[in-house]
Structure prediction request, 336 residues.
Amino acid sequence: MISGFFVLLVASGFQGSFGLGMKNYRPFSWEAFWVVFSVIGILCFPILWTSLEVPHFATYIWATPSSVLWVAAACGFLWGVSAIWYGKSIDYIGLSLTVGINTGVGCSLGALIPLFILNDLPSTNSMVILLLGMAVMLVGVGVITKAGLLKDKQGKTDASVTLNEKFMVGLLFALISGFGTAAINVGYSYAHTASDLAVAAGVNPVSASLIAYVIVFASGGFLANVIYALYILFKNKSYDDFTKKGAGFAYFKAILTGALWFAALGLYGKSAALLGDLGTVIGWIVFLSLALVISNFWGIKTGEWKGFKKPLRVMNIGNAILLISVIIVGYANSLA
Prediction:
């Protein structure tokens, strides 16, 4: 139990921190950073980790019906598009606002949409509480969005604050990127067919769960991200970023960002298993809540809210509402 909570804390720390690299990628351009992040984080790292724990994992993928793989890959592609919006949003409006809005929208859609698509509706009591949690979560998103609007308004009227002309675009990207969470959940549910085959063959269930991530991320998810990043790279002719002065440290940041991103998911899965019956309820609540708190800490620490006292207060209220909603949704899941 103790080891499970320790792994969960590490996973939450990674989840709340990986976005730092997405806002501090110099001397790379955004597109150069995203190419490296896509290749390392979305393609290589999931495959490497899975191959270490399940050496013949490809066998179970080939044994999965192609129709299932195509749906999972398509969901991965949709997530890939939303991941680009997420990265752009961090670049435009900062880590804390992006994570808060994305978490709220993503959790709402991610918990609700797959239930209807997969026709796996919970009991009436659980469903009522789940919908209540979703409603509270959307209120939290609305409050955090209000904080962002207040920040943008102050930035336009306060001469001491640098005007951010891309703020509204970033806010929109943060909102719509939440749809990617629902795509991941649906895709993962389909891809878990391969994981089930591995479990039936005697593979540890925790290790086998990694196979579903490979199917979703290393197929459509990778293609969406790397194709767009390469398109912008050649459009802007910024491919010389890979050899410019200081590129070594930029490579390090991109690789570390990719490693932390997938490690957060992989370690969360392990912590849920180590926590036993508490894993899918308490573990999920702690994971999301602590990641949200940590991302806000980094946002404040890096000066995202310097000079914005009122918007910061509103954002903190919104985050508190989100934390309450996560607890409600966790309780609903325990009744399912």
In short: The chain has 13 helices and no strands. Residues 40 and 258 are 6 Å apart (CA to CA). The chain has one domain: 2-121+169-299.
